[in-house]
Amino acid sequence: MPRQLGDLEDAVMTRVWQWNRPVTVREVLEDLQRERSIAYTTVMTVMDNLHQKGWVRREVDGRAYRYTAVSTRAAYAAALMNEAWSKSDNPAAALVAFFGMMSAEQRQALEDAVRMVRVSGPDVPVVPEPLHAPAEAPEAPEATEDRSGEGADRGSGPGR
User: Fold this and answer.
1) Per-chain mean pLDDT for the chain
2) CB 57 within 8 A of CB 41
3) Is 160 in a helix, a strand, or coil?
4) What are the residues whose beta carbons fall under 8 Å from the beta carbon of 84, sequence distance 6 or more?
5) Cα 53 to chain center, whole Å?
6) Which of 4, 10, 33, 126 has the CA that lies 20 to 30 A from 77?
7) Rounded to 10 degrees, what is the CA torsion of 2, 70, 77, 88?
8) Rounded CA gap, 13 and 11, in Å?
9) pTM, to two decimals
């Protein structure tokens, strides 16, 4: 069962899920910097941790890694809900309480999901979330973590 992502892990994974393509540390960094001050090494560490935990896979692309999500945000949310529900000593009461917390829009989404499962079965493909790409992808090769483990070339300037 998955554990809930931390705030920064969630912010990184949100971008990986939304962009739905291989992403670099630099792309995630530049998008995160619109919201907060954050260092390249911090984002690099978070993405490496997400790789170690099995949330993303990575492939070498020149001197950089490109990261892709292993599963969808919908699958992550479903696993969290299932884990919380399975820990209840009274699952029916937990569901009733959960439904009571839902907005009308959430209840409609639940009804739509139940209808889809009834018609098509439980393996209905999930519609991807709307894509939100970063402002611009870097054109020059980026400085990234040194995969040999002997240091890194991170460029100069703040946050690098």
Assistant:
1) 81
2) no
3) coil
4) 94
5) 12
6) 33
7) -30
8) 6
9) 0.67
